[in-house]
TrEMBL record:
Listed Gene3D superfamilies: MFS general substrate transporter like domains
Protein's recorded name: MFS transporter
Molecular function terms, GO-annotated: transmembrane transporter activity
Transmembrane parts of this sequence: 9-33, 39-61, 73-92, 98-121, 133-157, 163-184, 215-237, 249-269, 281-299, 305-327, 339-363, 369-387
Keyword terms, alphabetized: Cell membrane, Membrane, Transmembrane, Transmembrane helix
């Protein structure tokens, strides 16, 4: 399979499944509101879908590394998620406990597509290592910005029930398209004892391999800012005398910047230049640039300038994410690679949730100050990635000259 065709096949499969995982929450909230007249139950359904992915991540990662036929595993996972969404489409007619059980099962397989699929980038798009992860980052950005918007539009046209059924179909279609990827099993064993050993080996590698640990930590830390952003954007809009909905424009500006950055870094000429820079330096510099531009947005005197600065801050974030994915691959042995990707993605989800909670708890502060605080995690990634702790010298070791 040629390089361009492999990229097209990867995007054709990755974007639909990731679009569904990003947009399902919108449809669940609308379905609960319209069918049960309860926003609270909508929040419950979203939490039920999201929570298991963190807990199940190590096991799903171990299975992804071990299964003999990974494409069938992906298809099975897409079928489970599709069934869960189809069941949720009829919440009210279907007993709520049954819907909850279905969404719990669906949540358990989400890591197959968020993190797990990225572990196969080298096999799915062989050849240009850096470009493969740039394409992968593009799929995340496109699905992230398009998912909620498309689902909101489908809900308006088809009702929330129709939107959930459509998402189920999209998930199955994405799973089928992933069958075209040129990937095969890595020869692991999928029995419980082997899986347990695999989880232990991956955990040990994540904790003790310093270069990887710093990448995972920095990737998680920046999501504190990402989680704070939706709450803070609304507060900034109100503070500037605009309706709460104007906060969505700030989020859209950042998202458009991210998609633009991802598209640019996937351009062959730019990919070659990016690949020439050490990925750790690229990740650190890109996230730091996002932090600096977010600080600029915080001190901008007008709403328009704030939106422009946030749009610019999204540009380097995409480059940082591509470098982060590349580093995860380079610093992970093949037999635990999927686990590393899945667990790292789970930590980012957890820290994003913490960021949102923190932003809500300190919402009484000045919104410009809060936007400045959003920048801090991105700035913190720089020293985490590039500054290494000095190891103590052994007793009797000679003192370096000078």
């Amino acid at each position: 399979m040629s390089g361009r065709r492999a990229e097209a096949v990867y995007l054709a499969g990755a974007i639909p499944v990731r679009l569904v995982t990003n947009g399902a929450g919108v449809a669940l909230a609308l379905a609960a509101a319209s069918r049960l007249d309860s926003v609270a139950i909508g929040g419950l359904l979203i939490a039920v879908l999201n929570a298991p992915s963190v807990v199940a991540a190590p096991v799903i990662g171990a299975l992804t590394d071990a299964v003999a036929f990974p494409k069938r595993f992906m298809l099975g996972a897409s079928a489970v998620m599709a069934a869960a969404l189809a069941l949720a489409a009829f919440v009210g007619e279907v007993p709520l406990p049954m819907v909850v059980v279905g969404l719990l099962a669906g949540g358990c397989v989400v890591p197959v597509f968020i993190g797990g699929l990225s572990a196969w980038v080298d096999e799915a798009m062989p050849g240009d290592h850096a470009r493969g992860f740039a394409v992968d980052a593009l799929s995340y950005n496109l699905a992230g910005i398009a998912g909620p918007a498309i689902v909101a539009g489908m809900s308006a046209l088809l009702t929330a029930t129709g939107a959930l059924l459509a998402l189920a179909g999209i998930m199955l279609a994405g799973g089928l398209l992933l069958q075209l990827l040129p990937i095969a099993g890595r020869g692991g064993a999928a029995d419980p004892r082997s899986l347990a050993r695999g989880v232990a080996r991956a955990t040990r590698h994540l904790v003790t391999h310093g270069p990887l640990a710093r990448v995972v930590l920095a990737g998680a830390i920046v999501q504190l800012g990402g989680g704070m952003m939706p709450v803070v954007a609304v507060l900034v809009a109100v503070h500037r005398g605009l309706p709460e909905s104007a906060g969505g424009l700030l989020l859209t500006a950042f998202s458009i910047g991210g998609v633009t950055g991802a598209l640019l870094v996937a351009v062959p000429a730019i990919t070659r230049r990016v690949a020439a820079v050490p990925p750790r330096l690229m990740m650190a510099g890109s996230f730091a640039a996002t932090g600096v531009l977010t600080l600029l947005a915080a001190v901008s005197p007008s709403f328009v300038l704030t939106a422009v600065a946030l749009g610019l801050s999204g540009l380097p974030d995409a480059t940082g994410v591509a470098a982060m994915l590349r580093l995860r691959q380079e610093e992970s042995p093949a037999d635990v690679r999927a686990q590393v990707f899945v667990v790292a993605a789970g930590t980012r989800a957890v820290t994003a949730a913490i960021g949102a909670a923190v932003a809500g708890a300190i919402a009484g502060l000045d919104p410009s100050l809060l936007l400045g605080l959003v920048a801090v995690p991105w700035l913190a990634a720089f020293p985490i990635l590039l500054l290494r702790l000095r190891r103590p010298r052994a007793a009797g070791a000679p003192t370096p000259a000078g």
